[in-house]
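Record type: monomer structure entry
Structure origin: computed from sequence
Chain ID: A
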Amino acid sequence: MQTKRTHVNTIQNINTMAYRNLLKTLHNPDHLMDVLIQPIMFMILFGYLFGGAIAGGIHAYLPIIVPGILIQTILSAASGSGTQIKEDLETGVFDRFKSLPIAHIAPLAGQLLADILRLIIAIIASLTTGYIMGWRPNVAFGWIVVIILIAVFTGWSISWIYAFIGLIAKSATMVESISLMTMLLLSFLSNAFVPISTMPKPLQIIANLNPMTHVITAIRRILATGAISNTAWIVLLFDLGIVLIFAPLAVWTYNRQN
């Protein structure tokens, strides 16, 4: 009975911390921009700017760019995990949490739980903007749910990487710089916005090795065929591998520092 009560209290503590982190996102313009403003802005900007040049028109370009912006969005939203953790460490918030009668792991777990909701908000913002611009998927709504789940799981697995970076980085500014650099490299050196065949040979090699290329390909195939391809299963296994590696690393680092 005591063990069960402890588990219930731990879950409640994690939920409270997740709620706290969501409020922090809503009241911080920088964090809110990552999950809400940025996907809307990039979808509109890239769609109307490159649609005519790459696909001959915005409507022909939307099936290409919607999955691309979707992945760029989850990269940006996931990176907020590391930044928020580092900010809490720098301001001494985690030291205050240690003095409270809450589960030791609650601050870290609450951040990663809040990231799931942040990712869902960012994904919905991306897809809704694409729909308003004229994007119409050729598959049933259930398959839209499937690509959302794949995108959320991919973003959440990446959140563990950024959480680990946030725990070991020297400053929140460093985390932001690393996040921006990796987001730009992973999104632009992929098939997110242009066909890989149009790139120079060295960049084609890099783009084909980029994991985000395969995530985008998996989502596009689901939207085109209404079926889960082998690429999608490989992506899910890759995401699971990231979690199995970086979740223990992040928890171990967190326990050592706190």
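Annotation 1: Residues 150 and 257 are 32 Å apart (CA to CA).
Annotation 2: The chain is about 85% helix and 0% strand.
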